Amino acid sequence: MSHDAETPHLDFAGTTPYEDYVQADVLTHLQHPLSDDPGEMVFLVTTQVMELWFTVIVHEWETAARALASDDIPTAVAALKRSVRELEALNASWKPLGQLTPAQFNSYRSALGEGSGFQSAMYRRMEFLLAEKSASMLVPHRGAPRVHAELEKALHEPSLYDETLRLLARRGHAVPESVTERDVSQRYEPSPEVEAVWAEIYSGDESDELARLGEALTDVGELVWRWRNDHLVATRRAMGSKAGTGGSAGVAWLEKRAVKNVFPELWTARSHV
Ligand code: HEM
């Protein structure tokens, strides 16, 4: 049979090529609310959507880190710029949950038990790439071998920021060996020498590729900070100062996490330009 040029194909021997690629049938049957509350579905799906964005962003930052390790700044900046658009989309997905009232959240909160975003392994992969390493974040995942193995590998790999600073050192900037040779499984601690390096880069030609790399990382840092603050405000609206389902003090604990600067010297160096 010849096909009418203007209508899509309808006949497929098996599942559609769309299904084979997207696995929409799998994806749209992964929603299992724990309560009868009609408002729980959007809480669950928003969380799943955010996990998918975390996954893409981890992919971009791993691409960027690998490119930096081989001195390919254009590929790294392209991946970082894609991640900036993705972070904007991630942050926009707070919209459906941003105005939850305590009564609405209470309708399904107890059904969540001890479940908490604190237990998101993909979020930890993001943090590890930002050099916010912590071996204790592996502990919750001891019962999930694949997740645990992926996190453990990520813990011991140089972060996006480590690869950036190593590249700056290779380009002749005075990044100390204590930074380039540091134990990358530990949380990155800011260094005055690195701050001076960024101040020098920012005092020079703004179209220089290192300055542009610094700005792409700053965009990333800003949007991660915005995600944390949007999460904090949504939490404050939904539960005030109650304790979290994950066992933390809730908002007070999140406030401490949200004040931290991602890529610290990229922010502090600005005072010296
Ligand atoms: C309005 C709904 C939400 C509330 C009230 C809320 C509340 C909380 C609280 C209280 C914590 C602290 C840990 C604990 O004791 O549980 C936390 C952590 C966390 N939540 Fe949420 N959350 C909400 C939505 C989400 C969504 C949609 C995500 C997306 C995945 C998410 C991801 C996280 C992550 C990654 C952490 C760990 C943060 C860190 O370690 O710094 N949360 N959340």
Automatic annotation (TrEMBL):
Pathway(s): Amino-acid degradation; L-tryptophan degradation via kynurenine pathway; L-kynurenine from L-tryptophan: step 1/2
Entry-linked SUPFAM superfamilies: Indolic compounds 2,3-dioxygenase-like
Coiled coil: none
Binding site residues for substrate: 109, 245
Catalytic activity line of the entry: L-tryptophan + O2 = N-formyl-L-kynurenine
Positions of heme binding: 231
Cofactor names: heme
InterPro entries: Trp/Indoleamine_2_3_dOase-like, Trp_2_3_dOase
GO biological process terms held by the UniProt record: L-tryptophan catabolic process to acetyl-CoA; L-tryptophan catabolic process to kynurenine
Described purpose of this protein according to its UniProt entry: Heme-dependent dioxygenase that catalyzes the oxidative cleavage of the L-tryptophan (L-Trp) pyrrole ring and converts L-tryptophan to N-formyl-L-kynurenine. Catalyzes the oxidative cleavage of the indole moiety.
PANTHER family registered for this protein in UniProt: TRYPTOPHAN 2,3-DIOXYGENASE
Subunit structure: Homotetramer.
Record protein name field: Tryptophan 2,3-dioxygenase
Species of the source: Streptomyces triticagri
